[in-house]
Design goal:
By secondary structure, the protein is α/β, with parallel strands linked by helices. Helices cover about 35% and strands about 30% of the residues. The strands form three sheets. It has a six-stranded mixed β-sheet with strand order 6-7-8-3-9-10, with helices on both faces. Strands 2-1-4-5 form a four-stranded antiparallel β-sheet. Helix 3 crosses helix 4 and helix 4 packs across helix 5. It is elongated, with a radius of gyration of 23 Å.
């Protein structure tokens, strides 16, 4: 049985469809990247999966429990670290984690708090007020509270935000270890981080699911085309570039630079086209396809 099942999940605010008929499944013991530009609907989706926001329509289940009909059962089986990590700043770290353990009615609360402090590297900070911690250590406290009740599913929204490079590596390794036993839905704007942690990604844009695949498969599929960056010494007429055979989409990068999504490598044709138009080229190169390139191709608007 899948750990998370989402079918036609939709959330409407007024006339805006923040999430538009999303459907996907997450398997047990799987770390899945959840990607999308700002405003794509990622956070709204995660809040619906954790029963904090009611869907307008559709259905979602976590560990076999419906997020609308059985919200308390869902919350017992899910650990959630939101992007804006809400903490009681006037409480001490250990005091706060003991409080959270009490909310979950853990029989071995003291032992579990000790384990979470060790696991998330909070041993030296456990006697400090949360309000006195750096953002990185607050993230660790948030991760500790999300894990303290040993949930089956973890939903992490930008978990490495505010961490220094060494802390990022530590948390990344921790997430990888957790993914051996738990299902992890992991949202991040750092594509290299997602590639290091996840094998599979979900990409949404304007509330719709635009990709659900292994990263390796996505990159292989996108290699069938070509992405070419052009830069000009002065302003040109980009609409004329769109008329070239084999150019599927064009995106303005600013400063007279353009990113072209092409069916094949058109650098030679573009060079002679620019020469014919007397547009002085200062940049012309084909980009190597990485997850970031795939993400842009699927989410950048057409100009």
């Amino acid at each position: 049985m899948s750990a998370v099942v989402v079918k036609e999940l939709t959330k409407i605010y007024g006339e805006q469809r923040a999430v538009d008929a999303l459907s996907f499944e997450l398997n047990r013991g799987e770390i899945v990247g959840f990607l999308g530009p700002n405003g794509a609907g990622k956070t709204t989706t995660m809040k619906m999966l954790t029963s904090f926001v009611l869907p307008s329509s559709g259905k979602a289940e976590v560990a076999g429990f419906d997020v609308v009909e059985e919200p308390m059962e869902v919350r017992r089986r899910i650990g959630y670290l939101p992007e804006h990590n809400p903490l009681y700043e006037e409480m001490y770290v250990r005091e706060y984690l003991q409080f959270v353990a009490g909310l979950h009615r853990l029989p071995n609360a003291r032992q579990r708090v000790d384990e979470m402090i060790d696991l998330t590297g909070l041993k030296l900070e456990q006697g400090k007020l949360i309000g006195a911690l750096s953002k990185g250590y607050r993230q660790r406290v948030g991760l500790a509270q999300a894990l303290i009740h040993d949930p089956e599913v973890l939903i992490l929204d930008e978990p490495t935000s505010g961490l220094d490079p060494n802390q990022v590596v530590e948390i990344r390794e921790l997430i990888g270890k957790l993914g051996e036993e738990k299902t992890v839905l992991f949202s991040s704007h750092i594509m290299q981080e997602v590639e290091l942690i996840c094998q599979r990604v979900l990409i949404i844009n304007r509330g719709k699911l635009v990709a659900d695949a292994l990263i390796s498969d996505l990159k292989m599929h996108m290699h069938e085309g070509s992405r070419i960056t052009l830069g000009f010494a002065r302003a040109i007429q980009p609409d004329e570039l769109k008329l070239m055979e084999g150019v599927n989409k064009i995106h303005a990068l600013g400063d007279n630079r353009y990113l072209l999504f092409c069916e094949s490598d058109l650098r030679e044709q573009l060079f002679f086209f620019a020469a014919q138009k007397k547009w002085p080229l200062v940049e012309l190169h084909r980009e190597v396809m990485e997850l970031e390139n795939v993400f842009q191709e699927l989410t950048l608007p057409t100009d």
